[in-house]
Amino acid sequence: MASVFIYHVVGDLTVGKPEMTEFYETETVEAAIRAIGESTECGIPVWRRKPLLGIENSEMRQQRFVGILNSLDIVSFLAKSECLEDQEKAMKTPVSEVVVPNGSLLRQVDPGTRLIDALDMMKQGVRRLLVHKSVVWKGMSKRFSIIYNGKWLKNNENPNGSSSNSLTTNPNRPSTSSTTAVRDKFCCLSREDILRFIIGCLGALAPLPLSSIYSLGAINPNFSSIEASVPAIEATHILPGDPSAIAVVEPALDGQHKIIGEISASKLWKCDYLAAAWALANLSAGQFVMGVEDNMTPRSLAEYAVNSTAGDNNTVDGVGSTRPRKFSSRSIGFTPSSPGFSVNRGLSFGASRSMYRGRSAPLTCKLTSSLAAVMAQMLSHRASHVWVTEEESDDVLVGVVGYADILVAVTKQPAAMIPTNRSLEAFTTDIQS
Fold first, then answer.
1. What are phi and psi of 236, to 5 degrees?
2. Crossing angle of helices 403-410/191-199, nearest 10°?
3. Do strands 128-137 and 179-190 pair parallel, antiparallel, or not at all (unpaired)?
4. Among residues 91, 48, 93, 42, which one has the least CA distance to residue 67?
């Protein structure tokens, strides 16, 4: 395990982070759409309101946390029949009726918590760390934070003496670090923030970053998927977990599955939510991810006019006037990428797949891709995951790599790596079985 995770503390990652503004469960879906567009990991923490009287401690604050609301949750909600019938009412719905309660997704920690302890929390399912915002934080680097006889010491402690205020590795300890805290001001660290820190310390992690995700055991074969011919609304009945993504696949003759797209919080992050909700409720999964224009003639496309804000220049974050508009893949953020694309061709779904991918194309890597390359992919695309395909094929799906998988890989002991004598063929055979 790299010493960088032991010598650094959570406070090192809070430098320059803005103060967190709580988003309350009484806010509307319309307000949540705007907030999610400015968030990380395509979601926002949702809170209950503070009590009017009294001082709030960390336990009370933790109990106020409801859960994390992401873009997939909102589109799934707006795709309900009652919401499609009255979109204006749906947009005014309080988010308490949409968010899935899960208080374990956020944990409040002290700025002096070791980074290795924070990574352990996130490997166990925590997605956000709530950290006290400080005026002065002195634990900025290894030279300020030292270990002496197995104890994690504060900056102002003397290694030659004893101190009853020494920090421990308990992440739930009260705030005793060397900070000047600003009361009731916090910042929120996401797994994306952790990943940005890790990719800035690749040299200290050598040789892990250049190792393949296969050899590190970072590939998760347990992913959610749905066939392209199935109605897209079926995706709302699947609980994808982490990452919040569902692969859209086509079965192959040999029993394998080829990925053609995904229905995920990442892809729906900054889409037109009303148009995406209509498409989710009315199209097949394949049509949803590829774009309805692929197999629509101009005449049939006109039949898909809906009361949506798709393509309206006056809309903001998918919210605006509701006048009849033609649905298109551009409405939900999908744009044709091949030259000369035209709906007049009337191509079939299968024939047009290789011609029209655009933003609907899933983010993929190979079994032999390095850990550093996968991390760079995720950060550059602001994605929470990367789908893994076979080495010989660009679209035969074998697994997925998410934040939790990467955090496990970078903290893994070298002895825990998959032996090199185990072939890639054996790995893919195990997944298929």
1. -75, -15
2. 40
3. antiparallel
4. 48
> What is the DSSP code (8-state) at residue 418?
P
Question: 395 is written with which tokens?
Answer: 């679209």
Q: What are phi and psi of 24, to 5 degrees?
A: -90, 155
Mean pLDDT of 168-195: 64
Q: Is the peptide bond before 414 cis (omega within 30 degrees of 0)?
A: no
User: Tokens standing for 171?
Assistant: 């992440």
**Residue whose C-alpha is closest to residue 322's, from 274, 268, 277:** 274
Q: What is the pTM of this model?
A: 0.75
Length of the chain equals: 433
- Give the C-alpha separation, 430 to 184, whole Å: 50
| pLDDT at position 155 | 42
Tokens of 98: 């949409």
pLDDT exceeds 60 at position 248:
yes
- What phi and psi values does residue 382 have, to the nearest 5 degrees? 50, 45
DSSP 21: -
Taking each helix axis from N to C end, the angle separating 191-199 and 115-123, rounded to the nearest 10 degrees, works out to 130
Instruction: Return the H-helix or E-strand segment holding 109.
Output: strand 106-109
**Which pLDDT belongs to residue 30?**
97
Q: Which residues of 236-269 are buried (b: 16+ CB within 10 A; e: fewer)?
A: beeebebbbbbbbbbeeeeebbbbbbbbbbbbbb
Q: Which two tokens stand for residue 93?
A: 């719905």
pLDDT for residue 420 is more than 90: no
Check: CB of residue 331 under 8 Å from CB of residue 310: yes
Coil/strand/helix, residue 395: coil
The amino acid occupying position 194 is I
Three-state secondary structure string covering 193-245: HHHHHHHCCHHHHCCHHHCECCCCCCCECCCEEEECCCEHHHHHHCCCCCCCE
Task: Decide: residue 199, CB within 10 A, 0-12 exposed, 13-18 middle, 19+ buried.
Answer: middle
> Over the range 361-398, which residues count as b (16 or more CB within 10 Å of their CB) and which as e?
bbbbbbbebbbbbbbebbeeeebbbbbbbbeeeebbbb
| Short-list 199, 268, 218, 212, CA closest to 240 | 268
The amino acid occupying position 308 is: S
Structure tokens at 216: 């590190």
User: Encoding tokens for residue 21?
Assistant: 């503004």
Mean predicted confidence (pLDDT) in 304-310: 37
**Half-sphere CA count of 152, side-chain side, radius 13 A:** 22
